[in-house]
Give the backbone structure.
Amino acid sequence: MSRIPPLRVGGLSRRDFLKVITMATATMGLPVEMVDKVAAAVKSPERPPVIWLHFMECTGCTESLLRASHPPLARLILELISLEYHETLMAGAGKQAEEALQNALKKYRGKFICVVEGAVSTKDGGIYCQIGGRPALEILKEVGGQAGAVIAIGTCASFGGVQAAAPNPTGAVGVSQVLSKPVINIPGCPPNPYNFLSTVLYILTFGHPPELDDLSRPMFAYGRRIHDQCPRRPHFDEGRFVESFGDPAHQKGYCLYKVGCKGPVTYSNCPVQRFCDVGAWPVGSGHPCIGCTEPNFWDRMSPFYHHLPKIYIPVGGGIRAEAEKVGRVAVGAAAGVVAVHAAVGVIKKAAKGLKGSEKEEG
Ligand code: FSX
Ligand code: SF4
Ligand code: F3S
């Protein structure tokens, strides 16, 4: 950042700007010294064009990004990218919207980021999810196929989500099961907006995506189990469990394992990267984690209020190896990290050639 700091950055007060950037830098697991570098990437006029597709979902992913209770985060995301098409946010509708999509495809072919929200129906030619009379399956192939990089936001787009729960009547799948190119997954139902923002910021700052796990999720956000970061963990280790909701143990904030917590087999940063301004997250609010960042969680993690059969309550502390096996069951294709790096490199280069933004600096 400059020595004489501007009062406003990209429409945000300098205070709000720094707050969001510092949080995003911490989310990436980077030291505080990197805040300057990340801030410089945000202030750069290179804004990657984004085409944002909506398929089978509840729109909670967009809602969690843009919720009114935290406007600086939403504003920064909208400043950071050049949103060319987004059905929830755009003013145009019908033919006008279709035109906007086609124009953006022509203008930014191979250079835009395709963000997908929602699962894709594949059964019977994908007819169970259509937009403007076209199956989502066809739209995804057309748009995703021309994108420089693809990000699946939310568990629906990453792994199919609730739509893919048994018996999955529409043949719903995640984006990576349709496209034959790498996809970065940001799961969660809904995902934490900072995980999305930090992923985009990481790409803009370093010119390549962050390290990904075997399910193509950024390691900085999904590299550790809920259970290993949970403030209730000392109760688990000491065998202090909630037996039923509302009992004295629940009121004392004991471990929720026996009432169904899937934290031992769920990989996410929820305990440290909480939601909303009040720092809420399921376990912190007294509800078991239902494993919403994991593939097929509607089937694998339910019944939600029963503990996982393969995990034992430890005698003498520690989690048994069985939990590790259950937690790392990979479902669906994991994208190759090298290929993702290459694809995003194209975006970074392309963004350099794009017209600068109108960000305020004064
Ligand atoms: Fe899915 Fe997004 Fe769950 Fe909803 O739109 S990840 S249903 S909370 O939010 O796609
Ligand atoms: Fe926390 Fe759940 Fe693990 Fe208990 S089982 S320590 S509540 S993550
Ligand atoms: Fe989802 Fe569990 Fe986090 S339910 S929001 S992964 S605590």
